[in-house]
Amino acid sequence: MELSVRTAESGECQDLAYNVFARSCPSRGTLEHVTGRWGALTLGALHEGSLRFNELRRRVDGVSEKMLSQTLHALERDGLVHRDAQPTNPPRVDYELTPLGREVAERLMTLIQFVEGRMDDVLEARGRYDETRGAL
To answer: HTH hxlR-type domain: which residues (predicted)?
Structure first.
């Protein structure tokens, strides 16, 4: 599944072992886990530091317990999140980013901050679109 890509910086070709555009490529699943609504918000929340399940659920407003659990399992399986279960009574489970997860979250936070910073433009574009479509 190699793909040659010309990098913008150098103009040189670089061989990649995976191609997210190929249907059978395993990178596609990880991309879905990272960029899906709950995955992105979970990684963003954990970028701030280690959190327990209920703290994370409160931070990611609107996520159900089931969806958060599924999201954490997928991110843990992909090596992005570490689950630390401590044998206390009651049990204590903390979630934190792995080094790979931190790297992904930092890139994701750049995108999140960009989107938040440009929301006035987005809302304006939506308004124009809605006016145009409503007039048809």
So the answer is: 25-123
